[in-house]
Write a structure and sequence with these properties.
- Keywords: ATP-binding, Kinase, Nucleotide-binding, Transferase, Ubiquinone.
- Pfam families: ABC1 (PF03109).
- Belongs to the protein kinase superfamily. ADCK protein kinase family.
- One of its GO terms (molecular function) is kinase activity.
- The protein is α+β, with helices and mostly antiparallel strands and 438 residues long.
- The protein folds into three domains: 118 residues, no CATH class; 99 residues, Phosphorylase Kinase, domain 1 (2-Layer Sandwich), CATH 3.30.200; 119 residues, no CATH class.
- It has 18 helices and 14 strands.
- Strands 1, 2, 3, 4, 6 and 7 form a six-stranded antiparallel beta sheet that branches.
- Strand 10 and strand 11 form a beta hairpin.
- Helix 13 packs across helix 14 and helix 15 crosses helix 17.
- The longest helix is centred in the first third of the chain and has 27 residues.
- The N and C termini lie far apart (60 Å).
Length: 438
Amino acid sequence: MTEMPRKTVARTARLASIPLGVAGRAVGGWGKRLAGQSADDVSAELSARTAEQLFAVLGQLKGGAMKFGQALSVFEAAVPPKLAEPYREALTKLQAAAPPMSAQTTHRVLGQQLGRDWAKRFAEFDDTPAASASIGQVHKAVWHDGRQVAVKVQYPGADEALLSDLRQLQRFSRLFQPFAPGMEIKPLLQELADRMTEELDYRAEAENQRVFAKAFAGDDRVLVPRVVASAPKVTVTEWVDGRPLAAIIKDGDREERDIAGTLLSEFHFSSPARTGLLHSDPHPGNFMITPDGRLCVIDFGAVARLPEGLPRPLGQMTRLSLQGRSTQLMELMRDEGFIRPGMQLDADDVLAYLAPFAEPAAVETFHFTRRWMRRQAGRVGDLRGQDFKTGRSLNLPPQYLLVQRVTAGATGILCQLDARVPVRAIISRWQPGFADED
């Protein structure tokens, strides 16, 4: 594939093949049951083949489809075990892989963005991509001054393809619901669509990365590669080697898991106070642990602008939940728009809904597990339960939407890591409102 399929008709046909393929396999499954195979065996086979097709299509399309798959992938920890296994490998692949564009196409984009003499700016340039992203791919190169650099090149047609994908995916949103139990898929898609135009401009991403790199320069816990050069569809940044979080999730030892989880938590909670921005693309492909033990963070196309740091009411809500102060909690939520005017809710029901989410901050060290995340997802997703009814009655104000999604995504990664993290100390230091006394 040399560039992204642009035509809406072609992309829609590929996306439409997903539900049709699922339906076809379901019919085939009934035939196998009639032939004597057990329901569990058939179900497992259907899950595996569905996952294979689903992520093959999303990965091939790249663009918004792949971006959506990456956003879903961090919620894999919430999927029930019987369904999770076949999806896990496909999701992990999607985080880091997509069919590359040809060297000829890559050179054409580099010429358009860096000038006809682009090759003279590099001492070496590897035409084989080192990695791929949702809207671009990364090449390893040596800058003219000898520095090893990562060159991110945007796929031709990414702009048209992104928005086309997200429009089409919204039509099939119900199909994807099992991948993110307890989370509404349609708002996630809408929010991704709203942010896509920002991510398409690599100059804006480079500016974001410069802010982070300056704030974390010399930090002994976090490394943000410096920007060497940028253009609308190409960025050149310092190259960093490290062990990807996906590899630690797969086979890391206890110490690696705990260190990675702690560093990720510290970065998530501290960066708004330090930069006025929140890194808003939490999936394992954007993080790695360097040989000297730091968390390297990449991909700053999506950020939330938080000039005042993380919103104070979120810390206050967490504290009031842990203290069991249901009346004050509900008053604060009404004031902040989490409960719409005129909506009648029981304060104890609201507390019962929120308190389990605050559990990580209740103890000195919290063990994030897939089991814990599945329990939360099952609790809020149980149509017969009170928590589901309470959740449906609550409102998520627009200014909190991205912060909540990023926090949920980061929590998903912590559960995939199976990490033990000193969350309470981290939140006490960096989350405004949590350590308030009143």
